[in-house]
Amino acid sequence: MIKEVFIGNKKPKLTLVGAGPGAADLITLRGLHVLRTANIVLYDALVSEEILQFIPKNVPAISVGKRAGAHSFSQEEINDLIVESAFLHGHVVRLKGGDPFIFGRGYEEIEHASSFGIETEVVPGISSALAVPASLNIPLTSRKLSESFWVITGTTQAGVISNDVALAAKSTATVVVLMGLNKIREIMKLFQQNGKQDMPVAVIQNGTTKKEKSVTGTVSTIADLAEQERIGSPAIIVIGEVVRYSRIVEVVLQNSNYQ
């Protein structure tokens, strides 16, 4: 039951803070400042332990993390916990991996809190879709190779591949797939159907962190290579000619006919 009760003079407020792609020094200065003003922090599973160290020691911090097949809280429960925490504690910082508005359901949380009259704010974060490829020297756009890029969720709420993946496979753009590792074979099949079996692909796990692992190959080989290298989630998939610029590309395309 949500209780609209003010405790002391603490005004209820919600701030969504993007924690960035994982590395502690890639959270924004503004994000760090807001963390220091929090009365309580609700954080996601993708927020690194190093970033959690920035939370003041006397501030309660609750994990509400959601990963595939392992949800500690439903979205509805998170929404209600935000409201309850705001009226009980005051300033709630909702710390989310990457950017709060990129596949983070951030707007749903803002909308729910606002419906109770709670002040809201958003501190953008660096999305892994942009930062992880860049950290490996992969430009999402490059003159003569890619004039645009797609960022797509690999798996929808219904557990199936987004229809946008099939559309992206027809384009000449760089394609970044988030949360798609479990569907990588199906995703690559869509690109093969469009004659892109030799297109370079990179899969990066835990990008920008000390636990980073990556593998490169082609549309026709990457699923097997990722399995052989035991690449796991969280990981992003980058598909496009720009993968050739990667700093891990020394061994890429060895078994490819693409020259």
CATH architecture of the largest domain: 2-Layer Sandwich
Q: What number of domains?
A: 2
- The overall strand count is 12
Average pLDDT figure: 90
Count of separate DSSP helical elements: 8
Distance between the termini: 63 Å
Strands side by side in the biggest sheet = 3-2-6-1-7
Q: Helical content, roughly?
A: 25-40%
Low-confidence stretches: 1-5, 250-259
Q: Please state the CA-atom Rg, rounded to the nearest Å.
A: 20 Å
Tell me what the structure shows.
By secondary structure, the chain is α/β, with parallel strands linked by helices. The chain folds into 2 domains: 111 residues, Tetrapyrrole methylase, N-terminal domain (Cobalt-precorrin-4 Transmethylase, domain 1, 3-Layer(aba) Sandwich), CATH 3.40.1010; 124 residues, Methyltransferase, Cobalt-precorrin-4 Transmethylase, Domain 2. Helix content is 26%, strand content 21%. The strands form 3 sheets. Strands 3-2-6-1-7 form a 5-stranded parallel β-sheet, sandwiched between helices. Helix 3 packs across helix 4. The longest helix has 15 residues. It is elongated and about 65 Å long. The N terminus and C terminus are likely disordered.
